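Task card 7
Instruction: Convert sequence to structure tokens.
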Amino acid sequence: MDIVAYNPGHDGAVAHLQDGRLVSSIEAEKDSNYRYSPLSSSDMLDALSRLERTPDVLAAGGWWPREARPAGRTRHVGYRGLERSDMIIGRAIFMGTDVDYFSSSHERSHLLCAYGMSPIPQGEPCYALIWEGAIGAFYAIDSGVNIKLVSNVMNQPGNRYASIYGLADPTFPKDAPFSRLSDAGKLMALASFSQRSDATDDEEELMRFLLGSDDVRLDLYSQLDSTPYFNVGVEDEEFRNFAGIYSDRIFDTFANFAEANLRHGLPLIIAGGCGLNCDWNAKWRATGLFSDVFVPPVPNDSGSAIGTAIDAQFHFTRNAKIDWDVYSGLPFAMDGAVVNGRYDVQDVSVADVAELLSGGLILGWANGRYEIGPRALGNRSILAAPFNDATRIRLNEIKQREQFRPIAPVCLEDDAARWFGMDRESPFMLYTSQATTDALPAVTHVNGSARLQTVSQSSNAALFDLLVEFKARTGFGVLCNTSLNFNGKGCINNLVDMDTYAWEHGLDGFVVNDKAFLRRDSRPYLGFREQVHR
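Output:
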């Protein structure tokens, strides 16, 4: 069965399933579009151009506020709803062909995405947690894939979490109805600077408001300007302490509920944007409440189209599981050309690239199809050697972001326990671990943590081979790995943007599949050439 599903709104995407396999997921923000973008006509054309035939099912995700519901003609369902009565099932004309039409809620899209992509066998009961901007709830999924809401634990946990960054940031307007979407990731980095665990009386009062009010809006707090962190700046030491305390308080609210109300020993699947919080994911594993914890690489709304497609597949075939590969995006577009005279262009092997990286170059790396979800997992990455903190500083300058932001390591799976204490695979960069050596400062955060991606031959062959070659030269199968993107945009996916980025942001060059473009004016590259020719 062929199914095409789309999430037209926030983090828009089009997913294509064919006989239980994810063929592609095309995300609106990729190819240097703005983060969190809705679908565009270009995205739809990309998706339709890849279809070999008319699909059997067209499926639409729920919740897209720009689409009003005209009387008597509803095309999609709403944000929440778990029952069959909350779905739309009918027929539609698509590309001149009569096809099945399906729509289910945004809530179900999160649940089915995490469930369908998880290794949990269909028929094994489990729990699910959705925590995101609006929903904060636990669910029970039984052997028949019937979903029951256990409890709404906290509404708007994602918005509540991000809100304190705007409170401290003097550039954020305090009468804004929502926090900035990018603030949650920054707060996750700041929370690691926290050096105390006990809240002051003022902090307790602030948390009572932020976590207890019906709507988390700073302009509703009458004592806002008298709080200790009003416009103090995110560099403030006490604010950073509070960031960790506040993060722990939100997690503990959910963890305490789970301990008191859920049957221990079942697996847990996690969905929603808060599933990108690596510290919280690691804490869920550490609770010991669940037999396993699974977070898909697309827990945020970028996985909503996949979830709706799985939900449609389950409705029509009773199969709620899919085969999938995280590298299911579009291939890199080599249309256009780089500016003449900027680069030495040469065919390279992974051994050649490892030699360049061990020589101190910072390189863009594009290989195969882009990864689904917001994390750079080695197909649209900036790579560098991890041995000097100056590299972390330079990478943050290249990416035009704050210096308190950490750089993630990518590591050979077989070496992860030795260097990061990680005794299991972590292929999607969704868990923190603790560095066990001081030899990797560029990828070790201030509290000794690292947001690790592990790589094996089967998970990413090209990156695995590169790490093997890098280890042969340095003794470490570890590299700096950060996203290859303009600030505030999705990953770069075409040659012209790659050229612009390398030149304007200060990369030493880039590699696309097996071809290197090395800047003729790069000091590290010139120094490397001089060493080679001695």
